[in-house]
Write a structure and sequence with these properties.
This protein has about 120 residues and is mainly alpha-helical. About 85% of the residues lie in helices and about 0% in strands. The chain has 6 helices and no strands. Helix 1 packs antiparallel against helix 6 and helix 2 packs antiparallel against helix 5. The longest helix has 21 residues.
């Protein structure tokens, strides 16, 4: 079950990151179409996945990767819930309408993280 969760998480990160590298306007359309339900699911999903990564960190060989990703996801989810829907959406739109090179570099980091998760599982 843990291996399946890691594979799905790694593949999801990998596919979305490659899509953003290929077409940075995808990040803009995703951030503009964000509604309150999707926002809440995204924030709580980040918290849940972060907690799962923290729970399984001791059972895996790459425990530093899982600890770091778990803490980052928990903090990101908590920050999203703390600042609320409107401010979070405005921040996402501000980042997405920024520099395309920044979006592509972020996508490359996402590809690296996705590959690391796939290889660690």
């Amino acid at each position: 079950m843990v291996k399946l969760i890691l594979w799905l998480l790694g593949l999801t990160i990998l596919v979305l990151s490659i899509a953003i590298i290929a077409k940075p306007s995808l990040a803009r359309s995703l951030s503009e179409r964000l509604n309150e339900t999707g926002y809440a699911i995204s924030a709580w999903g980040r918290l849940l996945v972060g907690l799962i990564l923290l729970l399984i960190a001791d059972t895996r060989a790459w425990n530093v990767l899982f600890n770091a990703l778990g803490v980052l996801l928990v903090l990101a989810g908590a920050y999203m819930l703390h600042i609320g829907f409107e401010r979070s959406k405005a921040l996402a739109i501000k980042i997405a309408h920024g520099n395309e090179t920044f979006l592509r570099v972020s996508g490359a980091i996402g590809v690296l993280l996705g590959l690391l998760l796939l290889s660690a599982s």
